[in-house]
Amino acid sequence: MSNEPDQKPEETPEINPEAFADQAQASEGTAPVDLAAVKIAALEAEVAEWKEKMMRALADAENTRRRSVKDREDAGKYAVTSFAKDLLDFSDNFHRALAAISPELHNDERIASIITGLEAMDANLLKTFEKHGIKKIEPLDETFNPNFHEVMFEAPVPGKPAGIVIQVVEAGYVIADRLLRAAKVGISKGGPLSGDHQVDKSA
Known about the structure:
- By secondary structure, the chain is of the alpha+beta class.
- It has three domains: 47 residues; 53 residues; 70 residues, Nucleotide Exchange Factor Grpe, Chain A, domain 2 (Roll), CATH 2.30.22.10.
- Helix content is 50%, strand content 15%.
- The protein is elongated.
């Protein structure tokens, strides 16, 4: 019989699979990949891209709407431009005819009422112009403005500085903010002409 003490067999250490996997990944120098996070990031990038496209489309639509509104407003303001230009000659001739009537005829009872009616027609024509945004320019004693006035002559005038309108040869007109016809004027002579008003001349 052997006198050696009984020896227990050596126990095999338990292996944790998760710890083993972590150690293996660490030894290989790679990080775990989270597929869900990658998909979320891709979807977020796609959403951001579509959002930007949508915002651009909305901005384009708003710009188109504003241009359309402006075009409609301009059409309303300037629709009568050509017609108004044709009427200006008639208005000028009508006004000249009234101005040519001698004062004696105004006192003649036989035609005084006719003259009064013609004057009323002239005033009504100007009111109709104004109703449609057409205003008369009669800049007597105003500073010359090249945006509204056209110089026909210059003359020295004692006591007046240079560039003052001393005579309106022909009245001008504007429609809304656009020049329909420049006023033809005579101005005082002496210095440089000046004008600080701006007007759209595209009518």
